[in-house]
Amino acid sequence: MSAAVLIVLAGVGCSSSSGGGSSGGKITITELDYFTSSGANTAVNWYNQQFEKSHPNITVNREVVPFANLITKVLQEASAGDLPNIVMLDNPNVPEVAATGQLKPLNGLPGFTTSGYDPGAISECTYQGKQYCYPIGTNTIGIFYNKAMLAAAHLSPPTTWAQLQSDAKALTRGSTYGIAFDATADEQSTWQLEPFFWSNGGSLTDVDTPAFAQSLQLWVNMVKDGSAAKSVVSNGLAASWAWLGFPAAGVGHQVGA
Question: What is the CA radius of gyration of the chain?
Fold first, then answer.
């Protein structure tokens, strides 16, 4: 599971240069996030504007950085004791940032509750028994397929690995690949491979097993037989959409969320 989480890093009104401040009853909250895409960027700006309208004494000072630069920036600012009031993080980074000792636990704050949250999602915001964030969105992996392409090839949606591989091969024609996935050397490929070895009886606590090796071999086989582009190891999922000529993901499209 991948999730964006909202972390409260410092009390409003602190004197840090980037951490916000207050003057004459006016409060400034500094907020850092990685929502650089047009839709997400617009949504966050709209939300901040609505918040300021309902809290006229508060100004939100927003900073946006690319996701690839986010954790480096946050850790640098934590080391300098100069974190913003609020930051958006990917859930795997929460323990690393909490371990710096620069985060403010939410436990005991007015209105604090974890009621209504999925236990798995809320546990990702917990470090050494304390709550440091709230999940604001989670997603998971699915295989999407193009009904028209499968119908034209007289194929049915795959229900086994063998079918997945044979369908992807049958749908590969000319410059169109039958399947795509992200095999880049980062967390994205790990995240996309996990459901394969889970469905094969694997566990994250022990990846040195046949279940994991077989899952990885499935991807290798589809690259070797030409069903997936060799550049899945370098270009990632977003670029592979163009190889298939479709905006979505799966068989006849791509594997993705």
Answer: 22
Phi–psi pair at 127, nearest 5 degrees: -135, 120
Q: In terms of DSSP H, where are the helices of 17-139?
A: 38-54, 67-79, 94-98, 119-123
First and final C-alpha spacing in the chain: 10
Of 139, 155, 189, at which residue does a domain stop?
139
Helix axes 232-244, 187-199, angle to 10 degrees: 80
Q: For 13, list phi and psi in degrees, rounded to 5.
A: 100, 5
pTM of the model: 0.65
Give me the sign of the Cα torsion angle 183, 191, 3, 43. positive
209-230: pLDDT as tens digits: 999 999 999 999 999 999 998 8
Structure tokens at 19: 């951490």
Q: Map residue 187 onto helix, strand or coil.
A: helix
CA 216, 3, 206 angle in degrees (round to 5)? 35
Q: Are residues 73 and 166 in the same domain?
A: no
Last residue of a domain, one of 139, 164, 190: 139
Cα–Cα distance for residue pair 119/76, rounded to 1 Å: 31
Q: Is 139 helix (H, G, I), strand (E, B) or coil?
A: strand
